[in-house]
TrEMBL record:
Residues annotated as binding substrate: 249, 271, 362, 421, 441-442
GO molecular function: orotate phosphoribosyltransferase activity; orotidine-5'-phosphate decarboxylase activity
GO terms classed as biological process: 'de novo' pyrimidine nucleobase biosynthetic process; 'de novo' UMP biosynthetic process
Organism of provenance: Danaus chrysippus
Cross-referenced PROSITE patterns: OMPDECASE
Descriptive protein name: Uridine 5'-monophosphate synthase
Pfam families: OMPdecase
Family, similarity comment: In the C-terminal section; belongs to the OMP decarboxylase family.
Length: 474
């Protein structure tokens, strides 16, 4: 009885402090709603915070055993903090984005693999925010399949979560809170009927099961790729057991061809800077394509297009290099806006060409910001048929498993050159940072025996990949 009275008191309190609003609102999942639940205001009301904490504790933590609690950022973090203190449970904190410094962790706190974690959330509409949190917790080896929430809007979120193996307990459903507000003369019966009719008519879209690209094998990701070059590159990597991209930054075409004769069988991708070759000729291109076919690797021209769309389409297809005729894929900045992708998409035969979009750089003190990176990924989503993947340094840059993460700046030992290029180890870029294809240049090109060094890199990188998809990252 006490809990029933407290639930009724909480519903009325939430209305009185304007945490439950009626009007016309847009939810995170893109659904227009006549009612909105804004829990952010409760941090200004200690009595309400305490009541919520007590009710959630009785609902989910009093009898059930969990090692940790974790609030969905950011609204649920204060509630999770109070619950952790009340239940004497360790709290974990999930970041929405990784730090660009320090440990770069997504999950903060002390835990060990196999620990169980109860997720705390305020409101569920589609369940997408909980699924994002589940994905990050599971990536760290935690068991996360239970959540406790304040309000279930009854718009398929509970069903979506259950379909993904996550089960929730809620203090209220929307129908229950509406009834309390009507009984206490806070809203009219007609308003309640209008909201319930809306809830019955408008459901959140089904949440797609979370697919972690980091632990998905290349063969599976090839099936999910939209761009044919991405499909082909995934397949080559799986077939050759190589995720090594060689950057042939040499100025002599003869030296490049001689090098590829020695190491071509060990690489999946060859990256060129065609405009630094001093003796460029059509014959060089012909021989390069023949080597690519013989050794089964693809060619990436690292052109880093960065002009207006019309100019880029000419740079891609015209001039002395005629890049579009021989390069399987190219790199491009997103700085000019999506006109550059539209131009490349129109200029390319997307049946056998593609773009790596530059989302991050490996040089120290580069000017790319997290907002720029996020905008780049969103831009790519408009042209999935043209995108092979992203040049980036962070596994959180994108989630789509059909795209490829190309990461430069790799040597067997961490270092930094005199021009600010930062080199990371194979273990760091693949296991920690999520690289799919790793670019190595001087570590092989400048070696006394490029072939021997290529084999070392190939084997080291592949072992890291195999360890990653096994999920055994200890």
């Amino acid at each position: 009885m006490a809990n029933k009275q407290n639930l009724e008191k909480l519903a009325v309190d939430l209305f009185n402090i304007n945490a439950v609003k009626f009007g016309e609102f847009m939810t995170k999942s893109g659904i227009k709603s006549p009612v909105y639940f804004d829990l952010r205001v409760i941090v200004s009301y200690p009595e309400v915070m305490e009541l919520i904490t007590d009710l959630l504790y009785d609902l989910a933590l009093k009898d059930d055993q969990y090692d940790h609690v974790c609030g969905v950022p950011y609204t649920a973090l204060p509630i999770a903090t109070l619950l952790g203190v009340k239940a004497r449970k360790s709290m974990l904190m999930r970041r929405k984005e990784a730090k660009a410094y320090g440990t770069k962790k997504m999950i903060e706190g002390h835990f060990k693999k196999g620990d169980s974690c109860l997720i705390i959330e305020d409101v569920v509409t589609s369940g997408s925010s909980i699924l994002e949190t589940v994905s990050d917790l599971k990536r760290e080896g935690l068991v996360a399949n239970q959540a406790v929430i304040i309000l279930d809007r009854e718009q398929n979120g509970k069903q979506n979560l259950a379909a993904n193996g996550v089960y929730i307990k809620s203090l209220f459903t929307m129908s229950e809170i509406l009834k309390i507000l009507v009984d206490n003369q806070k809203i009219t019966k007609q308003m309640s009927i209008d909201v319930i009719n809306y809830l019955n008519d408008v459901k959140a879209p089904a949440s797609v099961p979370v697919v972690d690209r980091i632990i998905l094998p290349y063969e599976k990701r090839a099936e999910l790729a939209v761009n044919p070059v991405a499909k082909q590159l995934f397949t080559i990597m799986a077939t050759k057991k190589s995720n090594l991209c060689l950057s042939v930054d040499l100025t002599s075409s003869i030296d490049i061809l001689d090098l590829l004769e020695k190491v071509g069988e060990h690489v999946c991708l060859v990256k060129t800077h065609i405009d630094i070759i001093e003796d460029f000729s059509d014959n060089f291109v012909t021989q390069l394509k023949q080597l690519a076919q013989r050794f089964n690797f693809l060619i990436l021209e690292d052109r880093k297009f960065a002009d207006i769309g019309h100019t880029v389409s000419l740079q891609y297809s015209k001039g002395i290099y005629k890049i579009g005729e021989w390069a399987d894929c190219v790199t491009s900045h997103s700085l000019p806006g999506d006109g550059i992708l539209k131009a490349l998409n129109n200029a390319m035969d997307c049946a056998n060409r593609g773009v790596f979009l530059l989302a991050e750089m490996s040089s120290a003190d580069n000017l790319i910001t997290p907002d720029y990176t996020e905008a780049t990924v969103k831009m790519a989503a408009k042209y999935p048929e043209a995108i092979v993947g992203f040049v980036c340094q962070n596994k959180k840059t994108f989630n789509e498993p059909g795209f490829i993460q190309l990461t430069p700046g790799v040597q067997l030992e961490s270092s930094k050159d005199e021009l600010g290029q930062v080199y990371n180890t194979p273990e760091k870029v693949i296991l920690e940072n999520g690289a799919d294809v790793v670019v190595v240049g001087r570590g092989i090109v400048a070696a006394k025996s490029p072939e021997t060094q290529a084999v070392i890199y190939k084997d080291t990188l592949w072992k890291c990949y195999m360890k990653r998809i096994s999920g055994k990252l200890e």
